[in-house]
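Entry 12.
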Amino acid sequence: MRPKTQNSLNIKLLTLGVFIAFFLLFVLRSSFSSSNQSPIPTLPRPLSGPLKDEKVSNCSPSCNKIPSTLAQAIIHYSTSSIIPQQTLKEISVTSKILEKKSPCNFLVFGLGHDSLMWSALNYGGRTIFLEEDESWIEQIKRRFPMLESYHVSYDSKVNQADELLEVGKGPECTPVADPRYSMCQLALKGLPSEVYEIKWDLIMVDAPTGYYDEAPGRMTAIYTAGMMARNREDGVTEVFVHDVNRDVEDKFSRAFLCDAYVKKQEGRIRHFRIPSYRSNLNQPFCP
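Predicted 3D structure (tokens):
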């Protein structure tokens, strides 16, 4: 999720546009909420004149101040030369779902220059980032202390992907269960406890590193995301996998998130909508 420095005006304009749209939505929602509230009775003023400490405001009761987190995000992306790695169209795939579901629970595998954007777009919800590089976590925390992130260790490697793909098709990996107690080699068992306990509305897999043979690859992250979605109590989970132009991301997302659950693909991002399996644990792993 750590992008190369680019000078793309289109991406910057998109990012600002998305924030402005969300801010307008925030104001409209707040105004609508205020209009539905019962009017507060006005106490009679003393006949002697206005109160000594009374403050005159030019703002109506429905006037709202932009949240500080959104303000910081707008300032950051309007002044930074480092832009998100995803393209304009790729960002839009996830932002459209966030527009409908936020505030919600959003789990992101990866921590990067786009993390402040995802957190701001989920204003009022909970967004957690899982990152493999501890020193990178410290750098981001110094700049954006409001982001909630945790270190994750991976013991897989990209050059093991073919073997792990076959393992994932075995009897230890197809039953739906809490990943913490799974017998499957692909299940991530060392994540923070709250990651397993929260009912995630959105999960994005944009990490760990996966572009060279000795890198950890996203095999276990993709499998675990799919298992969390199936194991939730009810409802559906929107799962996004980035870099599906690469062999591992393409094959593992199709195998463990299933072609039948694909809702959209735009560029290098693929969107799946996976239902809970808890009411029918005997249904096929993939339809």
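Annotation: The two ends are 31 Å apart (CA to CA). Residues 87-275 form a domain with the Rossmann fold fold (CATH 3.40.50.150).
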